[in-house]
Amino acid sequence: MYFTAIDAGGRAGVFRTRARGGAGSTEIAAGPPFVAPLGIAASADGGRLFVADPGAGGAALDDAGALFAIDLPGGAVAPVRGGEGMRARGLEVARGADGEERIVFSGRDREGGQPGVFALPARGGEASALAAGSPLVDPSGVAVAGGGAVFVCDTLASPDRTATIFRIEDGFVSAFATGLHVGYPCGLALTRDDAALLVLARDVARGADEVVRIEVASGARSATVTGAPGHDEPGGLHRAKGADVFAFVDHRAQEQGSVFLLGP
């Protein structure tokens, strides 16, 4: 499993740990150009990682973020052309109608600063807006269905400051689920059959993490408790490529943060 973190020396970067557990983690790439990496996703063949860092970038862009690609297993890091200056946060890698991989990410429009969800060829190029502006306020986690629909979690879109999940399809944005208490960046993932959306959330009454399963067709919800009381700073949620097995992190677990695995 790959995750973003800060090492004992204070360097931000990308690290790896074994899915079945074990001692510690392995550094993939840490230090510059990373500043505050958040979102992470892998290419379909597992040969590259893509990382969203909203704090990266040169002075000319006022540290307005960048997208990076990491070659595996070597760890060489390079910016993804077209991702600079958009304060990218959450991202997913999906195939477009042309069969080419693209990065679908949340961030802000480079010109007007509007919050939105954008698509960019994984090889680099020009980013296009899938949705920008209202009702989006602070989008972070994204999940892409096989048919092209995009789900995005917005932590500030509701008046009561609970999270709203929006569905973006054919340029239209609609509220899919409301009233969720989540961490940051909000974690979203679809099951392999796209039948259910999993949201990494907080059980406010227990003060602990939970994963909320929302059936896409009906909106019905169920929750799975995933942490002990005090583990209430969840962030990120990703599904394995070939199975309904999910990984997420909690920034407060075991005092220094931990990576967790949620099986079927």
From TrEMBL:
Gene3D superfamilies attached to this UniProt entry: TolB, C-terminal domain
Entry superkingdom: Bacteria
Protein name: SMP-30/Gluconolactonase/LRE-like region domain-containing protein
